[in-house]
Design a protein that fits this description.
Layout: E1 5-11, H1 17-20, H2 27-40, E2 44-50, E3 54-60, H3 66-76, H4 82-86, E4 90-92, H5 95-107, H6 119-132, H7 138-157, H8 167-176, E5 183-187, H9 191-203, E6 207-211, H10 215-225, E7 228-230, H11 235-241, E8 244-247, H12 258-263, E9 270-274, E10 291-295, H13 296-359, H14 365-396, H15 399-410, H16 412-418
Parallel strand pairs: 5-6, 5-8, 6-7, 8-9, 9-10
Antiparallel strand pairs: 1-3, 1-4, 2-3
Helix pairs in contact: 5-7, 7-13, 8-9, 8-13, 13-14, 13-15, 13-16, 14-15
């Protein structure tokens, strides 16, 4: 099963946002995609991972179905230009590469912001969807639980999860410390503004209002995250209502000016967080009593410090992953010999029962119980050495030779057929 594990990946590493957003899958679409895969192909251990930065399918199959799965995904999303879109995908056709890739994705080493704290939860959601559809077998169960344990070690033993390492996350961390239960106005929903909103949805219970020049974009994001939406034409009344204004408007001149703040006299204390380049909030707004401004430079500095701590932790994280992969590989190899162990147990148990049937007819119930206990104990001791030798052979990569010897010695293939 290990060598049959494969995956296809479309991510920020090789596809722009305009491509990624066309192939993103929500929960319903991910589950539908997994069911379609089951209908079309002979596969198991299916995992569909989709975030704002990646869409990936993992599966186990004796055949390399990567290109077929990419085509099916594109068709399901209504994309006809299959050949051009196919070039954006990475394909992992070897078990080692697919397992390593999933470890790196799930721990945040492959994230756009290294060490992203959201990715472990997103992998858990994908795992739950797979389990809900009965598409996670023993291999995937063991693999994901090994990854979750490795993630726990990463959190406990390294600085890889510490601090806000992206500008958008650092901005959310900042505003959470400004006041309890604030009214937040997010103006401008480009990539950074959208990231702020997604982080707000996961990290605060604040009242959030979205404003964007293209209202339809604000409405789509507001519906997804459960945020209120207002018209850009009502921006001044929305400023008066808000405690914190997060701006990521793209324009050449500041939009929020001292004159605007003076015009809105009588308003309560305001915090501005300006994430725009060039700046969209004039520094002069702080000349108005009750207005405080945080610029992208101060926020980026905080994010850069956290990012450097995470980058310094990468070698330790990779050591943890290497140890986890070795442990998982040992288990996977033992899975290869598991059927032989079960057949050997079955063959010896059959011999034990046949011999007991021949010689125990005249025994009393208590005598029969003792004989049962003695012969069962003997069988377990006889089995112990072959089982240990099989597991040791797995680690040496020599299991197949010992499996053949045991099959010949105990005629296990015939035993299997007779049962």
């Amino acid at each position: 099963m290990y060598n049959q594990f494969k995956s296809v990946s479309l991510s920020h590493r090789n596809a722009p946002l305009a491509i990624r957003e066309q192939l993103a899958l929500n929960e319903a679409e991910a589950k539908s995609m997994m069911l379609r895969l089951k209908d079309f192909f002979d596969i198991a251990d299916v995992l569909a991972v989709s975030t704002c930065n990646r869409t990936e399918i993992y599966y186990s199959s004796a055949n390399d179905l990567n290109e077929d799965i990419i085509k099916l995904l594109l068709i399901e999303k209504g994309i006809e230009d299959v050949e051009n879109f196919k070039a954006y995908f990475e394909q992992f056709s070897e078990g080692d590469a697919a397992v390593q890739h999933l470890f790196h994705v799930a721990t945040g080493l492959q994230s756009q912001v290294v060490g992203d704290m959201q990715i472990p939860n997103q992998i858990k959601h994908a795992y739950q969807w797979s389990a809900d559809l009965n598409m996670a077998g023993p291999f995937l169960h063991r693999l994901l639980h090994t990854i979750f344990f490795a993630n726990k070690r990463v959190a406990q033993e390294t600085f890889f999860r510490d601090g806000a390492a992206s500008v958008s996350y650092a901005a959310v961390e900042l505003l959470e410390g400004l006041m309890p239960n604030p009214k937040i106005l997010v103006v401008g929903l480009g990539e950074i503004g959208t990231d702020v909103c997604r982080n707000l949805a996961q990290n605060t219970n604040a009242e959030v209002t979205l404003v964007n020049r293209t209202r339809s974009k604000a409405e789509a994001l507001g519906a997804e995250l459960g945020f209120r939406v207002a018209d850009f034409a009502d921006i001044e009344s929305e400023i008066a209502h808000a405690d914190i204004i997060v701006s990521s408007i793209q324009r050449e001149e500041p939009f929020f000016t001292k004159e605007m703040m003076v015009r809105l006299r009588g308003m309560s204390f305001k915090y501005f967080i300006d994430l725009s380049v060039p700046r969209s909030v004039s520094p002069e707004v702080e000349e108005v009593p009750g207005v405080m401004l945080y610029t992208i430079d101060s926020i980026r500095s905080k994010a850069d410090e956290a990012l450097q701590r995470r980058l310094d932790s990468v070698p330790h994280v990779e050591e943890i992953i290497t140890e986890a992969v070795v442990e998982f590989n040992d288990w996977s190899r033992e899975m290869i010999v598991s059927p032989t162990i079960q057949k050997l147990k079955g063959a010896l148990e059959q011999i034990r029962k046949e011999e007991l049937g021949r010689f125990t007819k005249s025994l009393t119930e208590s005598e029969l119980e003792k004989v049962e206990r003695i012969t069962t104990s003997m069988m377990q001791k006889i089995l112990k050495l072959p089982v240990l030798q099989l597991k040791a052979a797995c680690k040496r990569g020599e299991a197949e030779t010992l499996i053949d010897v045991l099959n010949d010695l105990f005629n296990l293939e015939k035993e299997k057929e007779s049962h």
